[in-house]
Amino acid sequence: MEIQPSFATDYLASGPRLVAAAVATALCLLLAFAFLLLSVVSSKSKKPPSSSSPSAKQPASLKACDCPCTCGSSVLDSDSDSAPMAVGKTYANGGGVVEAAAAAERQSGASMMEQLVPEITTHALSYLDYPSLCRLSMTNSLMRKAANDDNAWKALYHKDFTLEQDSVTPVNGWKAYYAATRAIVNINSDFFNIIRERSLQSMSRLWLNADYVKCVHASGELFSGYNAVIQSWQLAFNWDQGVDFQVRDVRVRVLTDMAWVTMKTFVDMDTGPFNVTNVFEFHNGQWYMVHHHSSVMLIDGDVDQQNIHG
Amino acid sequence: MSSSSSSSSSPPCPKKMITLKSSDGETFEIEEIAALQSKTLENMIDENCASTPIPLPNVKGKILAKVVEFCTKHAEAGADAETLRAWDAEFVGVEHAIVFDYILAANFLEIPTLLDLACESVAEMIKGKTPDEIRKFFNINNAFSPEEEEDVRRQNQWAFE
User: Fold this and answer.
1) Which residue has the higher pLDDT, A308 or A131?
2) Phi and psi of B147, rounded to 5°?
3) Do B123 and A128 touch (CB under 8 A)?
4) Each residue of A120-150: b (16+ CB within 10 Å) or e?
5) How many CA atoms lie within 13 A of B45 on its CB side?
6) pTM for this prediction
7) Of A82, A110, A308, B108, which has fewest CB within 10 angstroms of its CB?
8) pLDDT digits (tens, 9 = 90+) for A155-183
9) What distance in Å separates the CA atoms of residue B140 and residue A56, rounded to the nearest whole number?
10) Does the interface ipTM go beyond 0.90?
């Protein structure tokens, strides 16, 4: 009495195994049938006198003969999950077998992706961009583990951002570090877009309302405290024509709730280029600017003079 | 032609062929030059194990045929980069299950060019698809519980803002 229910649960739990067993049984039956048919057909075709050509006919029957168990056992040793696939693929003849093989192949397609040797998976993942890598990690727990691989994200960091910080070990892993870096890069771009748009309102939202924030414009003037800083931007926006500029060599360093960014801005032949440093702080789930410093960049010819002075 | 060193009267550089045997017993011939693209085969050639057919139990005949084709094409002298790239694109423009087989074969035979090509192709298949589409395409089972799924979604939100 008690045996039956537990048997039923075992039965239900091993669903895929059950399917594999059923497929194998079906294949064996089909094979036996095919073998019977073939032997009948070949015996009939041997009737016309052909002394030399029986050897040509032989391969057909040989194939049906040597396939079943020998092939299955040799391919099975490494991967038990591919059992239905191995048995299915060895038969060229036989109609209903093709369907079973296709079903098995679909099943094995899934296990194939997940069973790729780790180093191949990492290699394949190295070609992905960060949104695809994230989406892949959302498919299932095995893919999540593969797609969250620390080395993969470290490589992506070096590819997308900078080769610097190679010796750094981020506290929360490289994926989190990549995410934080991306957030800072975005907010840094926002800062420059605000300057391009000359939107004082956006600028006043970006800065942290504190007395220790400072801003040093390219003119060399230093402004200290939120109000003074915002006022200085108001002046700048009213004054400037609204030049377009390019930002390059953005380098980010992120710690838990603080980040600093260095970059170079290029305006035109007469103005700049400038070295710029921005510092951000993390408050209430948002990044705020707390420091900005822009200074004229030294161009090659002036380097010798600088060395004498300092 | 005075005889100096050569004992045989064969032409100066005969194309040396190597025989490979797939897991299902099919044999394929490949020029030695082409075979050198595979580090595994290169080692065997260096150690003089290449005189008899080399058994490759991990590679099926269907795939081995294509691998031989790939190596032969890439060993051709004077192929310009553009046409080769186009040929490569066509080579991996097949069902993804077959591309996986290429990856495994290229890994086993240590053919870096084929491995890179196939991996890049798989990456292209993944790019731009939503997690659901990825699951359906590669037939991956969704093993997340609803809470885990929500967790994962939240953790990856930063990438889609």
Assistant:
1) A131
2) -70, -45
3) yes
4) bbbbbbbbbebebbbbbbbbbeebbebbbbe
5) 18
6) 0.64
7) A308
8) 899 988 888 888 888 888 899 999 999 99
9) 45
10) no
